């Protein structure tokens, strides 16, 4: 497999509109709201009087659409937008979505959030039969399956294709006659439907984006559902009945915006509950609770409430995205970290601090943060993580690619405590996380995917199974702690 | 007076380094930290082996210094940087600082934060004598006065010039042999000195920038002081003894970073105290306290603590700077406001909310915020402002230029309450503000300038006096309420 | 057929290198030399240690490769470059070549100069079978045919594919193991092989590009030939024996650089002979001969030599590419024409001028030029065109797309003379053109394609036949004059 | 003197309009036509309803004014434009003209082509009195002199100032009420007046720019004249009577466009006569005459005519400005030269070539050209230079700054012949040049400045005299040959 076809794991945001005369502008606003889901690149396809037109590029939404003309040229009654996460490899323009397929008889745009576990084997099979791919991402597989389907209508072709791809996905497709949206059978990736005052529809990754464009929430797209929106209205049908709810728990933990709701659960409230549960599970005697802005502030608030220890603003996050280019010296490199997060000395000095973070991935940032607190005069630092230790990669769309890079897969909690140099370190339990979200009483793991913590994946890993097996065999996983 | 010479009031940030081999890089980091003090443009002058070199431009620091080469070309042992606030007029490259004066015998860089009350009359007098100005800002006057001085040394020339300019200023000048820094006789504008581990010195607007570059705080530059830093070390001398402390209270209220300390007072702590005092002065029966991120979060925390009403995250501020270009429809324009601030519905719905904001200028944002809260289902909204009503313009460097634009100068509190559509509206008292900061027991107004609230300016307004007099005569000021 | 799939006719330049450590840099130089063959966009694929990498974009070579890094990142031992002509439609990034196909097992780059007469029908057939195209240009068809071939080796698959596409083409393909180059069975489009001092090979559109990189001319690629260059050296084989030389005569007339040689004929010398023949066929009594710079200077020199009338520099062409954006008034629009060409008044005033141009397409430029000469005081203007009247479109790769736009297809020579307002107007005869080039004594039309003048196309027009038939039926072609 | 104040010698183009509603657009077109006079930067000041507005930047006119908005924002009834030559030092934005001086009571724009011999001493004197300069160019001195003048009107102030600056200059100044233009007492630098069909006036560097905007030639500005154009029409007055015609001969030799006329002499025709005279003075037995495009084509045509040796197109100049960035190897660097000029092998091979170039400065290009001819198979190369050897610097505005860099100041003709490797080398005589131009029978040197060839400067060199004296003392000038 050539070097270009890697980095298959990505997190993204999608935003589609049908039936509003400001479709492209609304999509532009929507992508701004979903910017946290992907900063590598962005694109919009608009259904204009001259057909589907695309503008896309590498960079933030504000960079790609710097020229107002770039949006107005896409003006029409429907649009589809996408933001893409930055992964190490695969940072090429061809991978920026929506993909736009120009056939001699029609054009189709495709946007995808998620990751397919059988993309590579499907692609190999398709290529062997003569198919040519334009991107290195796995999203394109769906279009080839559609085109090869012998079903009589596009809708049936799409359904046939959706039943062939496995893994986590929220797909949106835009044609000249309809907007299609579908979620995988486990609901790994979120997708919601909203209604505009114009009567048009929005289908996008998070409810926060519905709010941003003034759309009223209609419903979540359920696992295994296909939504079809055209000029006659909205239809929802199941493309499969083999479904099992397993929403990505990391959406609740750190990925989604706090002002979003996923399957009816407020992300902010869920995080507050995680913080409260964490305080009960892992109490500590301290003076103040400080959260790492911005994603851990909700959990810190919860910890403070449950423990009675005062909530404080001990860290300031810069409001400006500093393009930190490579610094000439190590000292300058470390200083540039402080551009993003800086401690409030008057708050921290002489205090015993509970520092709440949402998760530990590589551990780099946590290590630097702890040092900042010590330099600012903290008496004690107690690190509390509002999720269980991340030990296993995700294959459904979150960019946690390899066990090797995960700190908790390579170190015990005691080791990590020493590496961080904190007075104590503790994590939320998996059951605590499940209870805090409170999504389902009946589904396994409360309707969440918690494979990153437990290694128990809700679906077969297919193309990824051999590599994972090999990785795990090389690691000394602290399995006893996992179950604790 | 031609149209170009307007917008004399501006807020800015300055950052100077002497005696460190990474002077330009440190200044670059420092300007990122001071970015909140000015987003119109930025510049750095570096003392390179080939003399003083400048790079500058319109835009954010990250835009002006997008190319790493733009910083490295300024490499040397000293540097001076500046960020400039965006005002309506005067947005021309010539006004971006540091100004660099190239004489046949030497070169001098000048950076200025503040506003001079006699700049226009000085400029007219200088022009009548043949002087030519390259910018339309008032900062350049100082250099002309220096050059016309008959004093034998640059230091004495500078002192003579500093005694001729009036108003609010923090000046920094860089020559090939020294870095000079001076603060006006009232200390309107802040300036602090720090020491680097290399032995070099930093002089900049806020202590947060010292922290960002790892410099140790040495001292605040006191009113009427001139600091001279050269290879033999640092000297501080008084250029005048007619001083009277009157620090700009708006620095504490909203302008400075919460992680900065001004004259020994933590900005964050001062804001917490403002919120606590506000809770005592203006209590209300409610369910949650929500602050407007990010500048009002400290005050909201204080209000919560003093009142016992739970602190909540009811508003989310986007982490991405959205370039919001002109939207085609009014509806889209209003939606684009939500890109910056969005309510957390699950938090707000059905709640009686105390919404804490740091100040009311035009009132536009507050009006939109209140609407967002109502749309999100708030039962009641009680707006609490952690500073007194802004009724008078600032002539010392804060961009509050005209009484006409100030909502509180044109409306009573009751009128404003109705305009906002809130259940109640209340402001912190001036004495409450003074006590909360707690800067000085002896100086008038506790060592603060509170002219924006009281109309009592600590110095003669000179060039601005006639225009202000005329403005005030046209307004019906609610003076009775001011004293309340 | 959607609007995007149009503008299939394009002229381009290709440049491939195998076996030189500066492959990407050489290709960059080569593309500069071929810039006249296409200004819409440019791209280079380099065979780097990490596999095939591409940099491409819309604009001139100097714009696309403004950043030196854009070339150095492609460093390796082989490279393939392309410049693309600007046509009205189809100006999208996806059409910029070389196309880069990333398969799971390998990657292949493709560059094409020419136009296929059966591209659309092939594409429709392929799409019906499930194929997905990434561009709207016809070049991509070849890759799909290759991938669908059942032949055992890539070389044989390529040969099978080459035998399925019809029309004019010079294809180059780069894989990790070899560089392939092929010319259509009629040799419509030129392609030459050169040898570098390093031992490496260059295959490109014109010999001028060989000179630019210091490569020694080896041979022209002959009609129906496939060239394979890999680390074991160069092989040339015929992929078909059904060949018939019909080199595009417009390459000699105006398209190729004067310092190039096509099939051994110097372009400059051929043009000088066209001018001489024109002087014999269409003599006139005049004072000076002026050519339209730069493409008609050779013919003007020839006309001067044969007629004895002094050659003069009566027109100056600007050396700067003026981006002429839309001018607010008609007067300004006409003035902006003079930015490109301006008359030398002292040369023209009071003179009887023979103005030599290489061809008349729409006639717009000629009309404006004649007016410039009259304004500059020319006594008489005799327009002499060094090629026959263009009356029929080209379907083999020159951007003469529709008979409707061709002035000579809609007007008699006498009518054109009156429209131009010249004292006389005359064209070179088709036989004169054939004799002037002097390519072949045996092949029909001397081995040239002269279909634009005669309407007799050397191959079936296939997909284009119906549209051409309809167009011609709507025009009153002055066929009698054509044969004159 | 600090490093920044160098590179005082520059060549430039100026273009002013008064009294036309498309003033800014016309100036934009005019600057395109004058682009050859300066490629470092460009700027336009427009007299808009809101006063004088400026747009300027580093780069070509097409780059600086890439955005149409950049011109339309300057819309009004008058404008002043400038293009600036690229010199090694001083490439800073502050030096890009027109300079725009914003006073509290008015604004004035200034554009300058030329060089002042007493700029430095004037500047030092002015700075000692307190003046501050914004640029490092010498043009700004004039404005300071104007502002210090005690004369009652601007016109008289300007006249006083013009009498204080020495050297070569064509100044244009734009105020809200008039356009001023003045030429130095020797007429070193050209300036012409044209009339638009709208009744407005144009004053610019060359008649070619008049043609480009459709303006009718009115008259040359004579040495010592000041032109004032306002809404009441045009006035011409002498600001001094101490005049002596000494037009820069290099304007005729290579600098001006061939389609311009300077003091009534066609530049193209003058160059043809130089070539003819050169053929008479320095005949040679050869097969073809080839000129170096584009500036030497006129002289080559003259040489051909006078000698009877056929004129040939042996060199092709690329029509595309290749941004040639630093090439990794010496071989690639030399190849990149061929991007600009490439030989026509079929023309050159086996021929004895007379290669005509307009001048020899450093000799680098000539050396490379000769090598190209040899590689292309030339039997003999005879280099003929259509001007005398350049041995002395220019201090009046042409960028020939130092004798050290001038090949002919350091080598005899015989030495140069050997260095070039040509069969013969010969220059036009100074008298031949004077006769060829044919400007004046009465003025010394026929009204030309020929100091670059003879070292006899028409005016005192003032600030430059000491440096020149020292330079010359270090060189072994071949004075005997100079007089030959």
TrEMBL record, chains A, B, C, D:
<feature type="domain" description="Glutamine amidotransferase type-2">
    <location>
        <begin position="12"/>
        <end position="232"/>
    </location>
</feature>
<feature type="binding site">
    <location>
        <position position="358"/>
    </location>
    <ligand>
        <name>Mg(2+)</name>
    </ligand>
</feature>
<dbReference type="GO" id="GO:0004044">
    <property type="term" value="F:amidophosphoribosyltransferase activity"/>
</dbReference>
<feature type="binding site">
    <location>
        <position position="295"/>
    </location>
    <ligand>
        <name>Mg(2+)</name>
    </ligand>
</feature>
<feature type="binding site">
    <location>
        <position position="357"/>
    </location>
    <ligand>
        <name>Mg(2+)</name>
    </ligand>
</feature>
<keyword id="KW-0479">Metal-binding</keyword>
<dbReference type="Pfam" id="PF13537">
    <property type="entry name" value="GATase_7"/>
</dbReference>
<dbReference type="InterPro" id="IPR029057">
    <property type="entry name" value="PRTase-like"/>
</dbReference>
<keyword id="KW-0460">Magnesium</keyword>
<dbReference type="InterPro" id="IPR000836">
    <property type="entry name" value="PRTase_dom"/>
</dbReference>
<keyword id="KW-0328">Glycosyltransferase</keyword>
<protein>
    <recommendedName>
        <fullName>Amidophosphoribosyltransferase</fullName>
        <ecNumber>2.4.2.14</ecNumber>
    </recommendedName>
</protein>
<dbReference type="InterPro" id="IPR017932">
    <property type="entry name" value="GATase_2_dom"/>
</dbReference>
<dbReference type="Pfam" id="PF00156">
    <property type="entry name" value="Pribosyltran"/>
</dbReference>
<feature type="active site" description="Nucleophile">
    <location>
        <position position="12"/>
    </location>
</feature>
<dbReference type="InterPro" id="IPR029055">
    <property type="entry name" value="Ntn_hydrolases_N"/>
</dbReference>
<dbReference type="InterPro" id="IPR035584">
    <property type="entry name" value="PurF_N"/>
</dbReference>
<keyword id="KW-0658">Purine biosynthesis</keyword>
<keyword id="KW-0315">Glutamine amidotransferase</keyword>
<comment type="similarity">
    <text>In the C-terminal section; belongs to the purine/pyrimidine phosphoribosyltransferase family.</text>
</comment>
<comment type="function">
    <text>Catalyzes the formation of phosphoribosylamine from phosphoribosylpyrophosphate (PRPP) and glutamine.</text>
</comment>
<dbReference type="InterPro" id="IPR005854">
    <property type="entry name" value="PurF"/>
</dbReference>
<keyword id="KW-0808">Transferase</keyword>
<comment type="pathway">
    <text>Purine metabolism; IMP biosynthesis via de novo pathway; N(1)-(5-phospho-D-ribosyl)glycinamide from 5-phospho-alpha-D-ribose 1-diphosphate: step 1/2.</text>
</comment>
């Amino acid at each position: 497999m050539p070097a270009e076809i890697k980095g298959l794991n990505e997190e993204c945001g999608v935003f589609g509109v049908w039936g509003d005369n400001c479709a492209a502008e609304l999509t532009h606003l929507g992508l701004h709201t979903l910017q946290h889901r992907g900063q590598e690149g962005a694109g919009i396809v608009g259904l204009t009087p001259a057909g589907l037109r695309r503008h896309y590029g590498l960079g933030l939404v504000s960079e790609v659409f710097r020229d107002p003309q770039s949006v107005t040229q896409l003006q029409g009654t429907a649009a589809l937008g996408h933001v893409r996460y930055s992964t190490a490899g695969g940072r090429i323009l061809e991978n920026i979505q929506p993909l736009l397929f120009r056939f001699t008889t029609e054009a189709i745009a495709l946007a995808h959030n998620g990751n397919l576990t059988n993309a590579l084997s499907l692609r190999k099979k398709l290529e062997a039969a003569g198919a040519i791919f334009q991107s290195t991402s796995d999203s394109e597989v769906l279009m080839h399956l559609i085109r090869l389907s012998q079903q009589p209508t596009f809708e049936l072709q799409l359904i046939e294709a959706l039943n062939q791809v496995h893994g986590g996905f929220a797909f949106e497709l835009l044609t000249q006659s309809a907007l299609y949206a579908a979620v995988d059978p486990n609901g790994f990736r979120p997708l919601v439907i909203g209604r505009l005052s114009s009567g048009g529809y929005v289908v996008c990754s998070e409810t926060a984006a519905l709010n941003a464009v003034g759309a009223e929430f209609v419903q979540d797209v359920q696992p295994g559902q296909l939504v079809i929106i055209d000029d006659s209205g909205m239809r929802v049908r199941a493309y499969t009945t083999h479904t099992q709810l397993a929403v990505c728990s990391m959406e609740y933990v750190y990925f989604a915006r706090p002002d979003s709701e996923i399957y009816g659960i407020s992300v902010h409230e869920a995080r507050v509950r995680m913080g409260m549960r964490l305080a009960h599970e892992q109490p500590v005697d301290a003076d103040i609770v400080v959260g790492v802005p911005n994603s851990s502030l909700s959990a810190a608030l919860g910890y403070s409430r449950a423990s009675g220890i005062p909530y404080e603003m001990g860290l300031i996050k810069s409001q400006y995205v500093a393009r930190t280019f490579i610094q000439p010296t190590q000292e300058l490199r470390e200083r540039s970290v402080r551009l993003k997060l800086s401690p409030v000395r008057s708050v921290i000095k002489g205090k015993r601090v509970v520092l709440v973070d949402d998760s530990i991935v590589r551990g780099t940032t946590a290590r630097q943060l702890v040092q900042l607190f010590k330099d600012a005069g903290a008496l004690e630092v107690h690190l509390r993580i509002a999720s269980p230790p991340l030990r296993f990669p995700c294959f459904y769309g979150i960019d946690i690619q390899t066990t090797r890079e995960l700190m908790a897969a390579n170190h015990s909690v005691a080791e990590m405590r020493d590496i961080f140099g904190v007075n104590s370190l503790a994590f939320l339990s998996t059951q605590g996380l499940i209870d805090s979200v409170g999504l389902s009483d009946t589904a396994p793991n409360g309707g969440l995917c918690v494979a990153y913590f437990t290694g128990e994946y809700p679906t077969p890993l297919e193309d990824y199974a051999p590599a994972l097996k090999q990785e795990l065999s090389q690691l000394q996983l602290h399995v006893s702690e996992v179950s604790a």
